[in-house]
Amino acid sequence: MADEPIAELGMKTPLECANTPNMDRIAAEGTLGLVYTIPEGFPPGSDVANLCVLGYDPRLSYSGRGPLEAANMNVKLAPEDVAFRCNLVTIGADGSMQDYSAGHITNEEASRIILDLQREFGSSSIMFVPGVSYRHLTVWRDGAESAETTPPHDIVGRNSTDYLPRGPGSEGIRELMETAAKFLAVHPVNLSRMEKGKRPANSIWLWGQGRAPKIEPLSKKYNLRGGIISAVNLLNGIGVYAGLEVIRVEGATGYIDTNYVGKAKKALEALRSMDFVFVHVEAPDEMSHEGNIEGKIRAIEDFDAKVVGTVLDGLAGFGDYRVLVMPDHPTPIRIRTHSSGPSPFAVLSSRSGENCARGYFYNEKQAASSGISVSPGHLLMDLFIKNWGDFVAGKNG
């Protein structure tokens, strides 16, 4: 959701241009600031950033994106297993990465492809596991954990051959990708998609590999019961390791057409029996990767009205509460990928003494001018759950 000033928007960010009365209310009545979720030297991925958001120091808990997604897919990793994120992508005739999502391929089409890949290439060493849309998993026993891989959404429009896996053990990864591409070139799903003018899933892209991490559950760390709501396997996998219950929502897609209101209502329902719920919406990030300014503003406005607004209305019946809104990282339209800069956060507490109430709108510029920042970012969750009153008192003092 966070971004940079854009010339087409009069040097404003999408957040500044979007109509966001509910997030503005949290910022104006609560506490607004900046949070740094990407430690120095780490890639600005959603894996690193969301571990940080949930209170984990990535320097101690991060081992790769693949194993986090595996947890959500109920794939138990043995010590020798390396889990890779497996994207279905579209590679152009010129070798360019045309689409990191194969035209946001449907779950049904993608599942058929991944299961066929498993039948064709699966073995005692390699396993393909279907996920959601273009996001899947490959588990490789004694795989090349230290190979250097690149997220496909970072190289849209570029020559993909310049970003193939490299380094120790990368030969086997490249060979599997090349062999799979020959198989997918004539797959019935892709032939059908091309007949309809849709982009084919004509290649797999393996990246984000790692072994199972060691993460202390939030239930133990904070003595609470919590849940997570997301359409993205990565986020739900982090939730599993964090000891959160994965709450499924019908119509949640991880895209701009997701069931925003359903997520908010499920969160309120869960809070009747839980202490904490983490709600994740992917749509603004997807629009950023596509370079879609209007789509990003729409996604932000939908998030504000349908998620934040619904939650704020429902929280009135709970008495005592705190609500936090924030992006996990910026995804600037200019570069169409993630960046390591700070993100605006805002917290509203039902306890008046836990709010700074300085009257800001919710956006990057106002957050920067608030004079409040949290770095390293993994400290924010600890403050939010345990010490928010003391933190705000210090800022008001």
How would you characterize the overall build of this protein?
It is a single chain. Helix content is 38%, strand content 16%. The chain contains 15 helices and twelve strands. The protein is of the alpha/beta class and 397 residues long. Helix 12 (283-290) runs antiparallel to helix 13 (293-315). Helix 10 links the parallel strand 7 (226-229) and strand 8. Strands 2, 3, 4, 5 and 6 form a five-stranded antiparallel sheet that branches. Strands 10-11-1-12 form a four-stranded mixed sheet, with helices on both faces. It has two domains: 7-62 and 214-396, Alkaline Phosphatase, subunit A (3-Layer(aba) Sandwich), CATH 3.40.720; 72-210, no CATH class. The mean pLDDT is 95. The protein is globular and about 65 Å long.
List keywords for this structure.
16% strand; five-stranded antiparallel sheet; alpha/beta; Alkaline Phosphatase, subunit A; 15 helices; 2 domains; four-stranded mixed sheet; single chain; 397 residues
Name of the CATH homologous superfamily of the largest domain: Alkaline Phosphatase, subunit A
**Helical percent range?**
25-40%
Instruction: Tell me the distance between the termini.
Output: 31 Å
Roughly what fraction of the amino acids lie in strands?
A: 15-25%
Order of secondary-structure elements: HHEHHHEEHEEHHEHEHEHEHHEEHEH
User: How many structurally independent domains?
Assistant: 2
Secondary structure: number of strands: 12
The number of helical segments is 15
